[in-house]
Amino acid sequence: MNKLSTKIIKNFGANTLSMLLITSFQIISVPIFIKFWGVEFYGEWIILNALTAYFSMTDIGINTATANEYSFKYAQGKYIQANILLNNNILFILIAFSILLSFLLLITSVFDITKLLSLELINSKVAKISLIVLFLQVFIGVMSNTLNTIYRAKGEFSRGMNIDNFIRLGEYIVTVLVLILNYSILELVISVFVVKFLAFLIKVIDSKKIINYKLSLKFISYKEFIRIIKPSISFLSFPIANSILLQGYLLIINSFLGSTAVVVFKTVRTMVFLMKAAVGLINSSLWPEFAVEFGKNKLQTIRKMHRFSVKSSVIFTIFLSIFLLIFGENIYYMWIGNEIEFNTLLFHLLLLSVILNSIWNSSVLVLQATNEHQEFSILYVVLTLISLTVAYIILLTTSRIELIPLSLYITDLILIIYVFKKSLKIVDDDIKNLIFSLKFDLQKLKSYIF
């Protein structure tokens, strides 16, 4: 086994652990939240917490673009330029979050958050303070992600991920303890913030052992910042579009059908999205090494990596779809209990949406890891806005939550065609060879099974 394969396997292991932690917490925490807070209060917490996804967009994608570019430069031995990229990144995040924090303090002072979000059970003061602390949590998280640039460039991505897993586990343990001990929302968000902050300090110390980077204003380059800003802003499309699809849908469901409907949609979607997370494991494991190999101009290697991403994602999707179709309803009731009725049509339509989404997501890795995603980013945001508009019309005209997934098909079908066309061009491949390779592997897998 070569070094590249070993790194990818380690990345996959770290990412798998991350997914297991996130999934386990989602499975365990929902019944606990409902038991100690009730469905309606938990629904309001979901709405309040959903806003944090928008806070994470403050870095305008510069973390991701810098991570790619830093890997390119470090692989080429251009260490000073790599250090300039890191310093620019950190300075921008500090400035951006300072501006947004000032704006948030102004908004929460002038307006009543509970009225803006239609919150009835959480009082105004608690909502205001909780929102500010949640914002600070996101700031620490973004700064922590910045340090992952170091681990990626040095081929130690799995190490950085495992530190993140340790941090995540600490947050989850504290959350469950706070709920069981029947503490308030404020005590919950403050406790999680303390865990995040202390763990971040540990990560700073460890990252310096990987690469002895220098932080100084003398490494700030306006010219370099302008060059990286275009792919950075384009990366912003991913959290924007994902927030539209995730939090945006919850907000319009809440406005039409109330917090209980939010919980119904979110619980079904969480279970179905496990399949999407499995495909994400493959992409996130390949991405760091793909960027490094691209920086070294190893075309044959990145072509093989792209094919592996597509083939493994398709195989994952087939098996997980069959599993969920057979056991999905039973799993849901074992997880949630009988307090919420399982919506079969919502489940089936969401499952089909995730299948379509997984197909193009298996290939978009190429655009993301090479900073060649600018055109895609515009298309992605536009399509998700169209999908959200269609979802709004569906609720306005039918008030049927189970029909909402139909709005997602617009985005996925168009992106399947677009993404593969672009990715195959970058890796110098064609669709016929890709399909033949996929068909061959599926036939081999079928022979092993039967």
Q: What are its keywords?
A:
single chain, 450 residues, mainly alpha, 2 domains, 17 helices, 0% strand
How does this model look, in words?
The structure is a single chain. This protein is mostly helical and 450 residues long. The chain folds into 2 domains: 1-228, no CATH class; 236-443, no CATH class. It has 17 helices and no strands. It has helices at residues 3-37, 39-50, 52-55, 62-75, 79-110, 113-116, 124-153, 157-180, 185-210, 222-235, 237-257, 259-295, 299-336, 344-369, 374-398, 409-426, 431-449.
Spans where pLDDT lies below 50 across 5 or more residues: none
Calculate Rg over CA atoms: 22 Å
Number of helices: 17
Q: How many domain regions?
A: 2
**Total count of strands:** 0
Could you outline the blueprint of secondary structure elements for this entry?
Layout: H1 3-37, H2 39-50, H3 52-55, H4 62-75, H5 79-110, H6 113-116, H7 124-153, H8 157-180, H9 185-210, H10 222-235, H11 237-257, H12 259-295, H13 299-336, H14 344-369, H15 374-398, H16 409-426, H17 431-449
Helix pairs in contact: 1-2, 1-8, 1-12, 2-12, 4-5, 4-7, 4-10, 4-12, 5-7, 5-10, 7-8, 7-9, 8-9, 10-15, 11-12, 11-15, 12-13, 12-14, 13-14, 13-17, 14-16, 15-16
